[in-house]
Amino acid sequence: MSDIRNRMDDLEMFVERTEGQVYRRRTFFSMCAILGIAPIAAKLTPALADAKELVVVNWGGDAIKGMKASWVDPYLKKYPDRKAVIDGTGPATGRIRLMVESKKVTWDVMDRNLHTALELGPQGMLEPIDYTIVDKSKVRPEHVVEWGIGNYIYAMVLTYNTKKWGGMVPENWKDVWDFKKFPGKRAFRREPDATLEAALLAAGVPRDKLYPIDMKLALDMHKKMKEHAIYYDVIADGQNAYRNGEAHLGVLLNTRAWPLKQDTKGLVDWTWNEGISWGACWMIPKGAQGGRAISDFINVSLDPEGQAQLLKTNGYGPSNPEAAKLLDAEWNKVNPGAPENYAKMIPGGIAWYAKNATDARQQLLDVLSA
């Protein structure tokens, strides 16, 4: 039943995103292919533009506009004889598998995260990054793997109410587990990444000893936390919990904590200290047809100018540390990739999550539902 429901959801989304819209022919047919829909049978009416272009796939919304201005436009300026388009339908793992296994690959480069690259690469779902063309020295070594290279940075950070405790604010995850010193509701995402690390740091595990994650210890810490916390599924719900005063401290995505501070005029703030930083990355589906253009695009996207622009447009931290030099002090305050901020955080354990994310998520959910 869940497969049928998921397929109906996909079809509904497909109609919403294509009806009456203008799409490149290659993009439209790729959307049909991944859903197993015959374009004629679909009875949809998108306008199709004939062109051979590089297809860049992201998750839609504001990211389309931001990545176009920051990365696609500079790429086309450097290579004016080429064409490129952003497909915002989202490179979900199931769609990648279906496309690769059916040998109908119409995507060229996809925006995901590094632990997904380490998961799908060894399964034969991805092409290796061509590091004879892509300059991996533009990013930190921890953001380079065989099947992916970091395109931006985001972080899960300790977020808190600045007025709740008479001028005191939590400075680390140990403070978050101190229910007497900092009374009030906590907020954690109902996902293992950062939720588990925060618990281990609160328990005194050293930063450099977080991985492999001690699941028993982390889950025991959340058993103590449960009565003091709300656990949210959608990141926007976590943001609203702080805004509405339902939660007073906990974890939140930095790209939500930043506008929340602005919206609340400083009532809510965050710290980079003991944040868990993550690298999004470019991945290439196995059998992609873009050739040299794929590597050229990835390489251009790592230039500091476009990376700095994407921070200003979408709040995504530059994976290229050199971009911080192009940003003033105010912008670098909200830049997870700025060297001074990045040094306060712990890089997420992508190798561990590539192997253990599914099991860790289920164990966490079991504890929270008990």
SSE diagram, text form:
Layout: H1 2-18, E1 22-24, H2 25-35, E2 47-49, E3 54-57, H3 62-78, E4 84-87, H4 93-101, E5 109-113, H5 114-120, E6 126-127, E7 144-145, E8 148-161, H6 173-176, E9 186-189, H7 195-202, H8 215-225, E10 229-232, H9 235-243, E11 249-253, H10 254-263, E12 268-285, H11 292-301, H12 304-314, E13 317-318, H13 329-333, H14 339-342, E14 346-347, H15 350-369
Parallel strand pairs: 1-2, 3-4, 3-5, 9-10, 9-11, 12-14
Antiparallel strand pairs: 5-12, 6-12, 7-8, 8-11, 8-12, 8-13
Helix pairs in contact: 2-4, 3-11, 3-12, 5-15, 7-8, 8-15, 9-10
Please give a structural write-up.
This protein has 370 residues and is of the alpha/beta class. The chain has 2 domains: 2-150 and 283-318, Periplasmic binding protein-like II (D-Maltodextrin-Binding Protein, domain 2); 154-278 and 347-369, Periplasmic binding protein-like II (D-Maltodextrin-Binding Protein, domain 2, 3-Layer(aba) Sandwich). It has 15 helices and 14 strands. Strands 3, 4, 5, 6, 7, 8, 9, 10, 11, 12, 13 and 14 form a 12-stranded mixed beta sheet that branches. It has a two-stranded parallel ribbon with strand order 1-2. The chain is globular and about 65 Å long.
Keywords:
alpha/beta, two-stranded parallel ribbon, about 375 residues, D-Maltodextrin-Binding Protein, domain 2, 15 helices
